[in-house]
Amino acid sequence: MASVLQNKLVTLCLLALLCFVSTAESTRKGASVPKPCRPNTANIKDFGAVGDGKTSNTAAFKKAVAELAKKGGGMLVIPPGKWLTGPFNLTSHFTLFLDKGAVILASTDMKDYPLIAPLKSYGRGRDEPGPRYSNFIFGSNLTDVVITGNNGTIDGQGQMWWDKYHADQLKYTRGYLFELMYSDNILVSNVTFVNSPSWNLHPVYCKNVIFSGVTVLAPTDSPNTDGIDPDSCTEVRIEDCYVVSGDDCIAIKSGWDEYGIAVAMPSQNISVRRLTCISPTSAVIALGSEMSGGIQNIRIEDVTAINSESGIRIKSGVGRGGFVKNIFLRDMKLYTIKWLFWMTSNYGQHPDDKFDPKALPEVTGINYSNVYAENATMVARLDGLQNDHYKGICISNVTAKMIPSDLPLWNCTNVEGVSNHVTPKPCDLLRDQGPSGKPCAFPTATLAIDKVPITQCPF
Ligand SMILES: *[C@@H]1O[C@H](CO)[C@@H](O)[C@H](O)[C@H]1NC(C)=O
Ligand SMILES: *[C@@H]1O[C@H](CO)[C@@H](O)[C@H](O)[C@H]1NC(C)=O
Ligand SMILES: *[C@@H]1O[C@H](CO)[C@@H](O)[C@H](O)[C@H]1NC(C)=O
Ligand SMILES: *[C@@H]1O[C@H](CO)[C@@H](O)[C@H](O)[C@H]1NC(C)=O
Ligand SMILES: *[C@@H]1O[C@H](CO)[C@@H](O)[C@H](O)[C@H]1NC(C)=O
Ligand SMILES: *[C@@H]1O[C@H](CO)[C@@H](O)[C@H](O)[C@H]1NC(C)=O
Ligand SMILES: *[C@@H]1O[C@H](CO)[C@@H](O)[C@H](O)[C@H]1NC(C)=O
Ligand SMILES: *[C@@H]1O[C@H](CO)[C@@H](O)[C@H](O)[C@H]1NC(C)=O
Ligand SMILES: *[C@@H]1O[C@H](CO)[C@@H](O)[C@H](O)[C@H]1NC(C)=O
């Protein structure tokens, strides 16, 4: 293994900025500089694991992480093979490295999935009231966590969960394939996630998170298999990812109705770039519907989608409260799309009947530019609320080639904004500024997380 590691294995040093931040902190505390390149390395085989796809390796995974945790962290290498296991938790200063041909298979025995508490900002499980089944790979209150490798695979074997979900046989909410909660300095790169029971990648209440070169694949008819869902997170970068999903490719969230309002942790300072998406029944990029803690300062650029339902969709409703503001999108190409742009103010779906009907979302400062679509059904459906208009919308340089349809090209209600250089001609509520109209601005200053280089370091 050591030679494999030396030759092939170039794993990722954490983020210079994050190193810098922790260094500064450690220096203050007089501790040593963190070593993201992990001096301690262990192989899952050292813990008796068998990669035959049949033997349950739950004990081996738990022991491996616990042993490394005792040493203050380290790297766990998963070699080629099929490593079946129940859910397991990660630790801090830890790298999970999946070599080429390594597949971690999630157990399909429901007894392996303990119940865990619902998220505070949701008040209950997303599918069902009460607790939820454990996520497959999970961690809470961690720092400096990396999942990477030579594009190995984490397979949730979700079919069992999807079947039970469709047959209404689940008493509790399905787990996510990977969830980190209250954690910071996270890197997920060069790894493939497939067949999640529900959402794939779910950082929640996290800070400084990078997803780079990640592939997420789920059947396009699988229920709620969102790709990457930053939820109440700050400083997140999603780049060079490829997502095929039965739901949204990327969904930025921040809690649900009165629970999200009480927790009040926005999702903010997030950049998504060079995304490729297939999501025939849902959005390429969704903001919400759970947005009660607020969503702000989001930059999305260089997105290509094939066969998706909406290009960018803001989902909200009465009772959500919160805000969606300062949202910037540019350079999106959509091939076969129902709506390029969709804003919904009547999404429904409440955790319970205790939501405040006066809690209305504030949606403002939305700039979309340089969007090209072929085989589009409608350009946009933009619905604000009568007593809560969605405002400050700017749409520029859009060309949509439409398929014949009886539906209107634009359907706008209770929205206010401007447009220019948009074909087909926008609805009147987006006042056309004519040929001299200015492009909708995109921020020039980069986010802190954008400046973080991903360096590779040999072991
Ligand atoms: C993971 O940690 C959580 C607490 O953060 C705990 O409830 C859960 O049982 C642990 N899961 C496993 C599989 O050990
Ligand atoms: C994890 O962090 C949250 C937020 O800081 C805190 O409320 C919680 O007590 C922490 N949990 C543990 C187990 O340390
Ligand atoms: C990602 O994995 C592929 C496939 O093994 C490998 O060729 C490539 O070098 C890896 N890239 C990075 C950045 O580690
Ligand atoms: C990783 O594997 C997935 C699934 O096989 C593939 O679609 C993707 O192109 C691979 N990525 C890299 C960097 O090799
Ligand atoms: C978000 O980014 C802006 C720069 O665009 C910065 O001024 C602000 O401090 C950041 N917010 C947080 C919470 O990091
Ligand atoms: C308009 O958008 C297209 C992509 O659809 C892009 O190629 C072009 O450069 C943009 N024009 C301007 C003036 O930004
Ligand atoms: C155009 O979109 C329709 C569905 O909206 C689809 O059936 C058809 O295959 C698409 N055509 C092309 C060329 O992508
Ligand atoms: C247009 O928008 C209105 C208000 O949201 C809605 O009731 C109607 O169904 C929409 N029509 C189409 C064709 O989308
Ligand atoms: C969107 O672009 C327009 C035109 O450049 C600009 O006036 C507006 O301030 C921009 N919106 C935001 C939220 O920056």
TrEMBL record:
InterPro entries, per database record: GH28_Enzymes, Glyco_hydro_28, PbH1, Pectin_lyas_fold, Pectin_lyase_fold/virulence
Q: Which SMART domains match?
A: PbH1 (SM00710)
Where is the signal peptide, in residue numbers?
1-26
GO MF annotations in UniProt:
lyase activity; polygalacturonase activity
Taxonomy, top ranks, is: Eukaryota, Viridiplantae, Streptophyta, Embryophyta, Tracheophyta
Tell me what organism the protein belongs to: Rhynchospora pubera
Question: What keywords appear on the UniProt entry?
Answer: Glycosidase, Hydrolase, Lyase, Signal
| The name this protein goes by in its record | Pectin lyase-like superfamily protein
User: Is Lyase among this UniProt entry's keywords?
Assistant: yes
